Amino acid sequence: MLMDVEEIKEYLPQRYPFLLVDRILEMDLGKSIVGLKNITANEPFFVGHFPGQPIMPGVLIIEALAQVAGVLGFKSQEKKPKDGYLYYFVGADEIRLRRPVIPGDQLILKATVITNRRGIYKFSAEASVDNQLVGEMLILCAERKIDVD
């Protein structure tokens, strides 16, 4: 394990129940990252999606991939939210969701930098469970300077 959830929280502004990355397993700064999300029966979204047939919403798989990509962006630039920086998820293209993610699954999240121009990152991203592709997409994130108190 490269980063645990406490270190991840230094690089992502999201918190429970919206922090969707439990660990970072691998990272090549400026190039690629591999993260992990353990999917438990206690996830708050399972209450309504779907009772009796719990499935992780596809938009949350996209968000989990964007969060992993954000960690890579922050770490590669040596910036943190506390320093007044955020990476906004600004788009996704070529989204394909291939199979449901259910309680007990271990979601592996991978993102690879395609381009980084003037703080706009484009990533190739994929999610898998048990070496089976769950989803793949292109993700855009934009670095923004914010005011911090």
Topology:
Blueprint: H1 5-11, E1 23-28, E2 32-38, H2 58-77, E3 85-97, E4 106-117, E5 120-129, E6 132-145
Helix content, binned percent: 10-25%
| CATH level-3 fold name | Thiol Ester Dehydrase, Chain A
| Strands, count | 6
**Strand line-up across the major sheet:** 1-2-4-5-6-3
Q: What's the average pLDDT?
A: 96
The main pleated sheet reads as: 6 strands, antiparallel
Oligomerization status of the protein chains: single chain
What structural category characterises the helix and strand content? alpha+beta
Separate helix tally: 2
Secondary-structure element series: HEEHEEEE
Indicate the CATH class. Answer: Alpha Beta
Could you list the spans in which at least 5 consecutive residues all have pLDDT below 50? none
User: How many domains make up the 3D coordinates?
Assistant: 1
At the fourth level of CATH, the homologous superfamily is Hotdog Thioesterase
Strand content: 35-45%
CATH architecture: Roll
Describe this structure in words.
By secondary structure, the chain is α+β, with helices and mostly antiparallel strands. It has one domain (5-145): Hotdog Thioesterase (Thiol Ester Dehydrase, Chain A, Roll), CATH 3.10.129.10. The chain has two helices and six strands; from the N terminus they run H-E-E-H-E-E-E-E. The chain has helices spanning 5-11, 58-77, and strands at residues 23-28, 32-38, 85-97, 106-117, 120-129, 132-145. It has a six-stranded antiparallel sheet with strand order 1-2-4-5-6-3, covered by helices on one side. A hairpin with a 2-residue loop joins strand 5 and strand 6. It starts with a helix and ends with a strand. 28% of the residues are buried. The model has no long low-confidence stretch (mean pLDDT 96).
